[in-house]
Specification:
Elements (H helix, E strand, L loop, with lengths): L11 E4 L12 H13 L4 E3 L7 H10 L8 E6 L8 H15 L4 E9 L5 H5 L2 H10 L3 E8 L3 H10 L5 E5 L12 H10 L3 E5 L12 H10 L5 H10 L4 E6 L4 H11 L7 H15 L22 H14 L2 H12 L13 H5 L6 H13 L1
Helix pairs in contact: 1-2, 1-10, 6-7, 8-11, 9-10, 12-13, 12-15
Length: 372
Amino acid sequence: MSDYFGKDIPKLGFGLMRLPKKVIGTDIEQTKLMVDKFMDAGFTYFDTAYVYIGSEEAAKKALVERYPRESYTIATKLNAFLLAPNEKAAKNQFYTSLERTGAGYFDYYLLHALMDNNYTKYDKFHIWDFVREQKEKGLIKHFGFSFHGSPKLLENLLNTHPEVDFIQLQINYADWENRKVASRDNYEIARKHGKSIVVMEPVKGGALANPPAAVKKLFDDYDPNMSYASWAIRFAASLDGIITVLSGMSNLAQMEDNLSYMKDFKPLNEEEQKIIRQAQRIMGNSSAIPCTACHYCTKGCPKEIPIPEIFSAANKHIGNGQMDEAMSDYKKAAEGAGKASDCIVCKQCEQACPQHIKITEHLKKCAEMFEN
């Protein structure tokens, strides 16, 4: 690999978006155990965000209050289109994040989830200038942005803001040639501009930990002891210019699995790369809904439809033919919440979706699948 900013940072980052849950709130004790295992293995990069409910507070209790500040790095994000009705509210997210985490400063700070339909909010609210000011004050060490937009927009942003230190991109083998996500195109543009990359969604919201049966067979035939998630994370970590690969671990088992192959990380060899290319061809023919369960779509749904849970149920049938399991999961998801047929096609969910999914069309199909 070439020299680049962040080359020496361990290639597994702890994404704090999907922390273990109790009946009410985050399971802090299990999170502490996960943090301890992560730190003991020599990893240091933690990623959270203002809009991840309970995440910044959990970072304070499980990490900041228990470890010396210089022993870890923490990243968080400012979101100018969710929970930010005006410029003051958007900027206040920074100060709230400082208070919630107790970190004193942020090693990495990001403008959150820039897309073609929202990036102008960051200009309108003067967020670029605001973040530069915080960096000058020493409250931010490195700043960048996470991105879910088109290659054309990324090119324009990097031409306009060459001062950013890094970019966070969605990269996984299933989306590498996906024209909507444009993983490869965006990766190549970032590297062309000399920007280092933090990888998000390497396991595509958990979908690649349970890929279609044909992909499972492909991986199992090569090495049945390698977890499906390991293929996805190692694919992303094997690319040049990667600072770290974020894994949104939800329990100790996922943490232990990730550490088992990332503690002594070895890039994919030539034979493994060929197998990944075969998996990509299979995934390219998949009709599964490409939802990563980020839940941005649910934050303003007037019918309170649990969209990611419904899509997860549908994918059990579409991807693996598990209709009984899919129906059971759908009934659990819709219990006490909105059903797929309750959608009024307001499309606020589609405006928020970083995967650019035609959510209302899929909800209609899910209603036909589960409710007829």
